[in-house]
């Protein structure tokens, strides 16, 4: 039976439930975030910091990847961005004295929330083989330890280099360069658990694995479909863009099993009407879909479009697409009863959606984890591409695909070559520029890395940011896998569970965050990032770092590379560390689209990367056209007496970082161990609101996994569906249950039963 990682403290978990809200943001949101900022940073530091967020001369918000508008407000941040910044710019410190007081066993018994609340890590720390406590270590010695372990491996492929999505372009470029010069493509990243399905689907169908819209397109669309995304919590600045679109006449369809407050109504704190008045109603049509029903929904809409005289943009289809006939044949067989079973929707809702689609000239579909973390995520997103292609909604203003990315630079990290399956063209460019032969075999993604660690095939694990053991599936398996490593290394800003579930030896390397000043030999440095819409811009931190022992991420990679590769490498690591312009020079020669990088990124606001489908309706796919695809429709089947569970974020967390215990818009406070169940399902299952249950996931291979001690909350989610927070429920997700093609863990569709326990 699975045990529970102490992400939230079961003993102290006492959720109070007041029911869902129906509007987001407004003055209370600003007040909530300022209270937290004052607690972490004090009043003066708060004011100094917040007015630099997302300004042209300031730093990029470490919150989400939503782009900044060209015309900036004085306060270009949101409630949850403020929380992300307060977490990073906190004045609390985790010092060597802290580690002397708290041994690893002690820390391993603390909740993730508690660990995060202790503050910024100030010194490099080392956990020796068999030691009970981390001890301070010099940077020199830390790099010696890592280099020693790496050099001792039988093959470079026994090392794994993970990246989380806050890492800057400069650091990411150096990190992949180092891994490849060392000799491996084992570069898993958080994308593997996030938008990998989007990249897979878009790459094959439109030829570019990124979204095809800019912020202006959102403002100009006349229909925006938001499917599987909760922007009120996870991309709050997106609500301003949706509001603006509405004010120009756009309509919004929301597709979600949950009624999310942020999509119902938005009170924009930057306008008088939003601050004190009623705000703007956003959603015109709410399709309360069953988990995993989206492919069936879009297939049904596609059939209806095809069958409507004159609805297909035939010129576009003829000139720019491939595979229409085959797709249309498959779509015509879409079965109405099956659609209703898969989606749980009312036929009238589908008709109303069709009417809105046919009445619109410029359609954008936005999505996030609600679509990407399913077994059939890739075909689902391909069906959305089919949907947009049918009416020519890719490659013109106000229309396109809009996967909304998570981490603030997760898209940029991929652009810089953080990918376990690099394109040959990237490797050729690296070889030309740096004169070594990078490995050509594909490396390990997240799930495969865990298997390799579990099976003893990977022995050294290095993480550039993130919290690998808490973010990944099958917590028990993953933790056991990590403990088999010889050495685990984390480049981190804050303490987390991955620092206490370690290999035989472990290192914590403390680094600068986005808001911190970065001064190197040639003077103050800036780094660059790419947002969800392919805009690249500079980010300059100004705060005094948490201690004089911190090194920047680029500096850490450069020193590690020099120490590990030694004479073998002719890469000028020392020059790179001294002056990040030298890194950007190389990026401009290796990564397509970055010509003249330094001067373009020095312009206020930065520049937009080219995107062939968006800019010129050119589709660089295998067929040279945009591809229709005709995958069979799939949806999760749920046996009698079982529910389908999604694992999602509360309003008060950033992935595995728990800010607090207030999921404000869902009206759940003071605890996180809740399972949201439709009241009708709950009655059928004999579960009263407030009952205690274990959540048990059941898999076709006959295995079960258990997360104990959840409070049942009657909540208006779609019938047959349930919801609980991540990462408490990651124990329930089996390592081997992943999306086809993208290999992303299926965190949004777990078949579960709820087992009542004594009150
Ligand atoms: N404040 C804050 N901001 C964040 C993050 C954070 O943790 N906190 N995380 C960042 C990261 S890395 C990411 S990837 C993004 C995540 O942003 P989201 O994807 O918005 O995050 P989730 O909480 O996973 O929410 C999934 C949403 O999809 C819905 N959903 C679930 N399953 C389905 C389905 O089968 N079909 C449909 N149509 N809907 C479904 C859920 O009800 C929920 O509204 O946010 C980023 N921004
Ligand atoms: N069940 C379930 N599992 C999921 C998901 C889900 O919806 N459900 N979502 C998945 C998704 S979308 C994602 S993206 C992953 C997230 O996986 P990760 O990216 O690995 O996790 P985070 O919680 O974002 O990482 C937080 C840690 O990053 C470090 N950090 C913060 N800022 C910096 C910085 O500037 N530099 C460095 N070096 N370190 C920094 C801090 O030490 C902090 O503790 O989780 C995935 N896991
Ligand atoms: Mo993500």
UniProtKB/TrEMBL annotation:
Gene3D superfamilies per the UniProt record, alphabetical: 3.40.50.740, Dimethylsulfoxide Reductase, domain 2 (3.40.228.10)
Domain Molybdopterin dinucleotide-binding intervals: 643-749
UniProt keyword list: 4Fe-4S, Iron, Iron-sulfur, Metal-binding, Molybdenum, Oxidoreductase
Domain spans labelled Molybdopterin oxidoreductase: 120-489
UniProt xrefs under InterPro entries: Asp_de-COase-like_dom_sf, MopB_CT_YdeP, MoPterin_dinucl-bd_dom, Mopterin_OxRdtase, Mopterin_OxRdtse_a_bac, Prok_molybdopt-oxidoreductase, YdeP_MopB
Biased composition (Polar residues): 1-10
Cofactor: [4Fe-4S] cluster; Mo-bis(molybdopterin guanine dinucleotide)
Region of interest (Disordered), ranges: 1-20
Family as reported in the entry's similarity comment: Belongs to the prokaryotic molybdopterin-containing oxidoreductase family.
Annotated protein name in UniProt: FdhF/YdeP family oxidoreductase
Organism of derivation: Streptomyces meridianus
Lineage: Bacteria, Bacillati, Actinomycetota, Actinomycetes, Kitasatosporales
């Amino acid at each position: 039976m699975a045990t529970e990682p102490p992400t939230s403290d079961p003993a102290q978990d006492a959720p109070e439930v007041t029911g869902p809200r129906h509007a987001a943001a407004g003055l209370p949101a600003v007040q909530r975030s300022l209270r937290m900022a004052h607690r972490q940073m004090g009043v003066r530091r708060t004011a100094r910091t917040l007015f630099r967020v997302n300004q042209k001369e300031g730093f990029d918000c470490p919150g989400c990847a939503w782009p900044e508008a060209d015309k900036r407000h004085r306060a270009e941040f949101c409630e949850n961005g403020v929380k992300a910044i307060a977490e990073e710019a906190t004045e609390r410190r985790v010092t060597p004295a802290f580690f002397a007081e708290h041994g690893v066993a002690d820390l391993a018994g603390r909740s993730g929330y508690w660990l995060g609340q202790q503050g910024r890590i100030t010194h490099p720390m080392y956990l020796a083989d068999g030691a009970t406590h981390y001890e301070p270590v010099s940077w020199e010695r830390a790099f010696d330890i890592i280099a020693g372990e790496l050099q001792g491996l039988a093959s470079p492929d026994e090392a794994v280099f993970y990246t989380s999505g806050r890492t800057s372009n400069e650091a990411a470029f150096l990190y992949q360069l180092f891994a490849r010069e060392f000799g491996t493509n084992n570069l898993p990243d958080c994308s593997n658990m996030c938008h990998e399905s989007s990249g897979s689907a878009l790459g094959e169908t439109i030829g570019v694995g990124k979204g095809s819209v800019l912020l202006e397109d959102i403002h100009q669309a006349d229909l925006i479909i938001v499917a599987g995304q909760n922007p009120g919590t996870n991309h709050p600045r997106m609500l301003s863009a949706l509001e603006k679109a509405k004010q120009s006449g756009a309509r919004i369809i929301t597709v979600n099993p949950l009624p999310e407050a942020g999509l119902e109504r938005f009170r924009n704190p930057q306008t008088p009407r939003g601050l004190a008045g009623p705000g703007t109603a956003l959603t015109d049509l709410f399709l309360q879909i069953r988990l995993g029903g989206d492919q069936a929904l879009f297939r049904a809409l596609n059939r209806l479009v095809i069958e409507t005289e004159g609805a297909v943009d035939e010129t576009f289809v003829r000139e720019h697409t491939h595979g229409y006939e085959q797709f249309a044949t498959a779509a015509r067989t879409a079965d109405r009863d099956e659609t209703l079973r898969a989606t749980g929707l009312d036929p009238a809702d589908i008709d109303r959606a069709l009417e809105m689609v046919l009445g619109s000239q410029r359609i954008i579909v936005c999505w996030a984890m609600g679509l990407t973390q399913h077994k059939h995520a890739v075909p689902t997103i391909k069906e959305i591409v089919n949907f947009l292609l049918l009416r020519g909604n890719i490659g013109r203003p106000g229309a396109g695909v809009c996967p909304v990315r998570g981490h603030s630079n997760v898209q940029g990290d991929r652009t810089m070559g953080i990918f376990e399956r690099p394109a040959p063209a990237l490797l050729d460019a690296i070889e030309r520029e740096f004169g070594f032969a990078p490995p050509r075999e594909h490396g390990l993604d997240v799930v495969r890395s865990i298997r390799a660690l579990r099976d003893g095939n990977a022995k050294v694990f290095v993480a550039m940011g993130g919290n690998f053991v808490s973010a990944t599936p099958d917590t028990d398996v993953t933790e056991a896998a990590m403990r088999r490593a010889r050495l685990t290394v984390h480049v981190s800003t804050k303490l987390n569970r991955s620092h206490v579930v370690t290999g035989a030896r472990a290192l914590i390397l403390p680094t600068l965050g986005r808001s911190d000043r970065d001064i190197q030999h040639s003077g103050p440095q800036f780094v660059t990032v790419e947002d969800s819409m392919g805009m690249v811009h500079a980010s300059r931190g100004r705060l005094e770092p948490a201690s004089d022992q911190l090194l920047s991420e680029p500096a850490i990679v450069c020193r590690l590379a020099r120490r590990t590769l030694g004479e073998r490498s002719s890469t000028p690591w020392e020059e790179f560390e001294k002056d990040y312009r030298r890194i950007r020079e190389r990026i401009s020669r290796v990564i397509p689209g970055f010509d003249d990088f330094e001067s373009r990124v020095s312009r206020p606001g930065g520049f937009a990367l080219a995107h062939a489908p968006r800019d010129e309706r050119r589709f660089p796919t295998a067929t040279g056209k945009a591809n229709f695809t005709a995958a069979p429709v799939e949806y999760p089947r749920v046996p009698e007496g079982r529910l389908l569970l999604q694992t999602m974020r509360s309003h008060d967390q950033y992935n595995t970082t728990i800010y607090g215990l207030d999921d404000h818009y869902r009206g759940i406070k003071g605890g996180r161990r809740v399972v949201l169940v439709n009241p009708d399902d709950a009655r059928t299952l004999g579960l009263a609101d407030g009952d205690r249950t274990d959540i048990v996931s059941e898999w076709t291979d006959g295995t079960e996994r258990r997360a104990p001690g959840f409070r049942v909350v009657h909540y208006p989610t779609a019938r047959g569906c349930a919801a609980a927070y991540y990462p408490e429920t990651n124990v329930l997700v089996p390592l081997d249950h992943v999306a086809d093609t993208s290999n992303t863990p299926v965190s949004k569709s777990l078949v579960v039963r709820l087992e009542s326990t004594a009150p």
